[in-house]
Amino acid sequence: MEFPYNDLDQCQGCQACASACPKQTELWLINDDGKAVFKYENKDECVQCQACVGACPVGAIQFKAYLQFCVIGQS
After folding, report:
1. In this predicted structure, what is the pLDDT of residue 45?
2. Could you tell me the CATH number of the domain that includes residue 20?
């Protein structure tokens, strides 16, 4: 499964991606200069519509595959 990945070095902190997201999966903390300093994506809610990718004016968002691991038989 693929989910949005945001390159914070390119990000301008405009939050266009958050406005475009139909599920509001993106939460931001913005510093005093208006720059994005942290982003958390609620991956369980993402419908992979990629509206955030199209909304980003600087191309800072890409969809990438995330692997999930689990260890069986360990507590």
Report:
1. 82
2. 3.30.70.20
User: Residue 68: its pLDDT value, please?
Assistant: 59
Which residue carries 């992979």 as its tokens?
A: 48
* Distance (Å, whole) CA 74 – CA 62: 35
Residue 46 lies in a domain: yes
Beta-strand runs (E) in 1-75: 2-6, 26-30, 36-41, 61-65
Q: Which residue type sits at 5?
A: Y
**Distance in angstroms (rounded) separating the CA atoms of residues 43 and 33:** 27
In this structure, is residue 61 part of a structural domain?
Answer: yes
Q: Is residue 32 part of a domain?
A: yes
- List per-block mean pLDDT (blocks of 10 residues) for the chain, which spans 75 residues: 77 84 76 66 81 91 71 63
Domain membership of residue 73 (yes or no) is no
CA angle at 63 for the pair 51 and 38, rounded to the nearest 5°: 85
